[in-house]
Amino acid sequence: MSLNASEDVVRMRAAVRQAAIAQGLSLVDQTKIVTAASELARNALDYGGGGAVDIELVQNGTRPGVRLTFVDRGPGIADIEQALKDGYTTGGGLGLGLGGAKRLSNEFSIVSQRGAGTRIVIVRWRG
After folding, report:
1. Which domains occur in the chain, in start order?
2. Which of 1, 48, 103, 110 suits a disulfide with 74, CB 3.0-4.6 Å?
3. pLDDT digits (tens, 9 = 90+) for 37-54
């Protein structure tokens, strides 16, 4: 799913919620993954020049979950460790996006290369 305009973020939020419902995630877990997804999509749009998200229904043994893979074509993140700290921002926001998304996820990975964009994968498991 492309992330090139604000309307795409709205569509993505609805699709993530539907995936979470399909996997039987609780309302709390649905809210956590939708919130994390919203932050990451907004970052891809605002800082990464747009991008895409892949929404997957996954299984870990008998435990269902939702995996989201965000990819942007932006300038990359110079210092990932710094970017994950609360309060750090290169824009006008509160600097809670990346760190907040990490806390809202059961699994979080980020790969970023200067000039080559960023790839972030998050997973939220049921229960």
Report:
1. 2-125 (3.30.565.10)
2. 48
3. 999 999 899 889 999 999
